[in-house]
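for the record, two folds in this file. i put them one after another cuz i was lazy. first one right below, seq on top, structure tokens after. the second one comes after a little note so u can tell where it starts
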Amino acid sequence: MAKKQETKKEVEVPVVETPVVETPKPKKVEPKKPTWEIKDRVYYLKGNKKPLSRMIKSANIYYFDEEKGYERELKYCQNQKTSFVDEMKGDQRLDHIIFRNGTLFVEKEKTVLQKLLSLYHPHKDKIYYEYRPSVIAADEIDILEQQVEALVAARNIDIDMAEAIMRVEKGSEVSRLSSKELRRDLLVFARNNPKLFLELADDENVMLRNFGIRAVEAGILRLSSDQRNFLWGSNGRKLMVIPFDEHPYTALAHWFKTDEGMEIYSNIEKRLNS
């Protein structure tokens, strides 16, 4: 009996198309403009002089508006809601801006005057400044960090470099100081003038200048009365000519780096150490 041959039928699988979902592009977020903080504000005149009263301009002043692209006239009027003349409406009752004993306190309710002084007035940070504790604190932190850096450098500096730096500050008086006195004065100098100290500590010529001063103090070299030449102290023979408008010892320090100067440096060094 013949077997029936079963024929396999191909089963068609339906193809399901997956819809393409477009990812929405992120919207560009515009940076928010800083909001005006409503608070009392204090303004101080710059400099050490604090007159009983000082009036600054409250009219005929201008502010360049970058968004609008032109200068806008400013005026402080008590009865207006803006200090920009082109935005004012109605009568303009001009008011004065007066500092008393170098200080101007502006209440939080006087927003127009505060914005004029803090944002737009052309004399801001020139004649007066706004008291900002956070800015002052940041400046004080920078100064303190600079003092720490200078004190650490001063503590680790060798005695020859200490003498060279302090000679800039004290002159020939340094030669009469003991090593402990020199260390003490160096630390005080680093604390009181950290920026200048760090500049001198990084100055590659400060040691050479000090070397030249020591040579003159010892009589090995002599600076002419017109400060135009360095001479040998023993016979007055001219050693080098000082370039015009240059400090004598700075010029000598640069000259010590030349081929001729290096030989003279070695000669002087032997005499100083003998």
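(here's the note) second protein begins now
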Amino acid sequence: MAVWRLSTHYKKSAVEKQLWYKDGVTISKEEGYRWGTFYCESDEMPDVDLANPDGYELYGYDWELDSLDDGCWSDWTFPEDMSEAEREQIETAWDEDFSDGLEALGWSNDDTEYWFHGPLLMTNETTGEVFSGMAEES
């Protein structure tokens, strides 16, 4: 069984999107990282378009998070009808106590998505082979 490592080629291309739920309302916190790495074990190379023109959600193949390094940006997405006061309350709770702060307000983080954007690198950790999604230069 081979161990496969998937990482981004360019910095600022790894994204974690946390989905928070409360009373039928969904908010999300998206954080960008300079670098990210996931691993999986498989007898065959995972079927991933390494050119990655549309972004790749790390789902399937039993991908396991190894690292998300050097967070560089963060954005919240709120429903349009959410009041400014409630938005500020959520952001303040996060700033003061991260996920515990949101949970204290009754929010539940039931799903997290991980996305890689741009060309990817796939490494067979067992053999050392590296596969790149970068376009071949002529």
